[in-house]
Model the fold of this input.
Amino acid sequence: MAQSGIMKDDVQAATDHVIGLHDVSFSVEDGEIFVIMGLSGSGKSTAIRTVNRLHDITAGTVVVDGTDVATLNKRELEHFRREKMGMVFQHFALFPHRTVVDNVAYGLKVNGVATDARRRRALEALELVGLERFYLSFPRELSGGMQQRVGLARALAADLDILLMDEAFSALDPLIRRQMQDELLAMQGEMLHKTILFITHDLNEALRVGDRVCIMKDGAVVQIGTPEEILRDPATAYVAEFVKDVDQGRVLQVESVMTPPSPFTLGTTVGEAIAALSERGSAFCIDDEGRPVGVVTRDLLAASHQAPVESVMNTEFGVTTRSAPLVDAYELCASGDLVAVVDDKGALEGRIHALDLLAELGEIESKAEQVKAADPSVGEARL
Done:
């Protein structure tokens, strides 16, 4: 019925069966954080649970490193789960009667790892998540955020290639949730380099954590793309409705709004600067190594035309990098002055003006409104 085009709710009304997934297809690259995002009932958790076959599929294939999971017998499936992937749950799933270190080491114990080895690996995993001092505590003695860290440490201790994280941070308070996101990204960037499938119902979290994001609705894929692609080019009104509530500054990077610097060099005269500033209004002055040393504006060029620009330039200005989140540039742009974008050696490679920043954010809002206006189903987006 689904393949013939009948909608999910109509199938359920006619048959009392719920379509979990229909025509869902995606691939995840090695070392990527791939986020599946959607509201309750969208099929996101069902999708991730087909990867380790907690749910069987009735059509199609699920292939992990060349293995078709659907073809595995019971013994092969148990081995596959133990050797290939770990899972972090929303509600921690800790044993209340076991200490923290024993909870973390439990999967290793099931796999027959010797006592000394599994304890060492458990302590190493606890150190990664900052809980090594609590290794003899019991779960009831920890906060919710700390318990979630224990769940993450348990998955890390197994040192498996793939992590499945099913709404792992959803039960946490907002501040702790953000801290866990920060810690996950830091660990992934510095030492883990795991392949992570991450499930969430929060688009802000999805766009912040994911290298790519898959948005689902009613058991189907709506859009797959990088955070910036989804923010800049929502595929449907459903996505556009979500996008308008996103903190854009935490998704976009500085390079998305920076413009070519077109700087002056030291020794340029005021007269030469006036001629060059006719259209730009302001510009940076750089030293012999390309590093910004000041800002020249038309307001400062009342001096003799033969004077060097360094005698009239403003040496107070903000500095950022192209990979910094755009939100970091908000305060720098607040004064209305230019902000320098520099590389890792301090050389100037771009500039930001407050007007450039506002124009970028306004364009994203405008695009989302255009997509919603063109789609009559926009009313279905907010539940």
